[in-house]
Structure formats: C-alpha cells, structure tokens
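Structure first, sequence second, as always.
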C-alpha cells in the first residue's frame, strides 16, 4: 500500500493513487529519483520548468486533462 503515514504533495498523492513507486516514475519521466521524491514529499517545492514538463508528459498519459496548476501553485 502506498502513502501510509507520509505527508505528500498533490503530485505524491496522484502517484500513490495510481500505485506507482517513485523509482518506476523516475525511470519513466527521466527525472532523478531524488528530485522526484522531493516533489512528492514537499508540498511547497516547485521544480524547474523542464522537470515540470517531463513530469506532466508522463502524468498526462494517465489523465490528459491535467495541468501544472493541478500540482503546483504557479
């Protein structure tokens, strides 16, 4: 089971909801595991635009209607 007892950002909750590990998601997106873990655990972390683009590209394979604002306050 994913996400038990962890404080998670909106991105982290999305990944947990779809039962994907950060390691798997890291390989799919091409974003380092460390950066992805930071984005999933810290609600106030905003990644660089290039990293956002890589993450959104993979996330949109599951839900094409998602936008940057769904995960980060920009």
């Amino acid at each position: 089971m994913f996400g038990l007892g962890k404080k998670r950002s909106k991105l982290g909750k999305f990944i947990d909801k779809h039962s994907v590990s950060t390691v798997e998601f890291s390989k799919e997106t091409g974003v380092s595991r460390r950066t992805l873990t930071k984005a999933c655990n810290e609600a106030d972390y905003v990644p660089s635009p290039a990293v956002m683009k890589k993450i959104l590209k993979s996330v949109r394979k599951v839900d094409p209607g998602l936008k940057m604002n769904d995960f980060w306050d920009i």
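Margin note: The chain has one domain: 10-65.
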